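Appendix B, example 12.
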Amino acid sequence: MSRPAAKPRSDAAEHLKAVALRLFAERGPDGVTVRQIAEHAGQKNHAAVGYHFGSKEALIRELIIDGARAIDERRCAWLDACEAAGGPHSVHEIVDGMIRTSIDPDLAPGDESFNRFVLLLSLSQRAFFMDALEGRWNVGYQRCLDHLRRLMPDMPAKLKNQRFVFLGATLGALLSAREAELADRSRPHPMWQADATLAHAARAVAAMLEAPVMGRASGGQA
């Protein structure tokens, strides 16, 4: 049985979530206290996080689900359109779509925080992160992997799965680096502000997925 949709939060709670996400992205979840979240949100009551969410852990869980659901919905909508047109047609097209659906189109580039938050959380509390997802909100990601299996060069399934691990790590690091640079408003960031950079990143990551298998990895001699 699916869970009912979460009830809408008050404006104050949504503001706390936005502030907490930014702080977690900058310092990591373990480096931020509920008191600091309340203070940065302009709340005089330092128990505001507990009042609205019950605990810091519950707040983090809600942030994970909010962001993962939004990405999954964007990714599935993009895939639906691609498949309706007979695609996706290439590894590059899939990787480009994965990158672009990981970016929130409703936020200014310097206001994004979710990818940094997820990267830091998965490094320090991966079991908690996976538990919060409950095996959901990754349908689009798995659909992308299915298309990649179809379009990648012929190689053992074990090696394709290894490259998918490389893919996830690379995308997480790349998107987090972009967010961190654009969040620094003290100077321009021409590389990350250019749309061509994302296209170039997609081509580079696709090249990693499509690289020939050589040496010991292919069962031959190094």
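Residues 64-213 form one domain. Residues 1-5 have pLDDT under 50 and may be disordered.
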